[in-house]
Amino acid sequence: MSYAIVGFGAVGQALARAFERQGMEVAVAGTRPPEALAPLAKAIGPSIIPRSLQDALAAEIVILAVPFWAHRDVAKVAASWQGKIVIDATNAFGVSPGDLGDLPSSVVISRALSGARLVKAFNHLPAGVLGADPNAKGGRRVVFLASDDESATTQVAALAEALGFAPVGLGKLAEGGLLVQARGRIWAPLIFQDLVKFR
């Protein structure tokens, strides 16, 4: 399985640290060329490989860690999103529900990435916590997953496990997914909840 993180700000770098901790190779990309990302990638570790955005989007699982509206620009780069698993790690804080057509933000992204199998995950923790060792307090740090595609959820849960996290499913995007999505300037109840699973 091949992986890419699109967006190499605080959240993208936190996720890259999680991959590096497990020695799992991941491509990283953004709006800047690969050589501009190289010093940051090198500082994290050898498993972090800078790529062009187009090359990174060839990965089987793509983690979207860009500012919310930037998903529209990313959507235009791939020739096709059909069947690709996309992990939505964005937060639409400050975006008016009206601007989203009163839809969950992940549904808006899913529609922009036509044919993608989208899973909301890795967005509810602050970057500093997300990038820390998920083995905490004798258990594993929880990451929440929501999707309308059960098979994609299973694969993202396996990735979360491989990275050392404890995945907890919340159901569909328009149901449990709303528990981890900002609405305007209001954070959903599970945002910033740093929970640990002991089994």
From TrEMBL:
<dbReference type="InterPro" id="IPR036291">
    <property type="entry name" value="NAD(P)-bd_dom_sf"/>
</dbReference>
<dbReference type="Pfam" id="PF03807">
    <property type="entry name" value="F420_oxidored"/>
</dbReference>
<keyword id="KW-0560">Oxidoreductase</keyword>
<dbReference type="GO" id="GO:0016491">
    <property type="term" value="F:oxidoreductase activity"/>
</dbReference>
<protein>
    <submittedName>
        <fullName>NADPH-dependent F420 reductase</fullName>
    </submittedName>
</protein>
<feature type="domain" description="Pyrroline-5-carboxylate reductase catalytic N-terminal">
    <location>
        <begin position="3"/>
        <end position="91"/>
    </location>
</feature>
<dbReference type="InterPro" id="IPR028939">
    <property type="entry name" value="P5C_Rdtase_cat_N"/>
</dbReference>
<dbReference type="InterPro" id="IPR051267">
    <property type="entry name" value="STEAP_metalloreductase"/>
</dbReference>
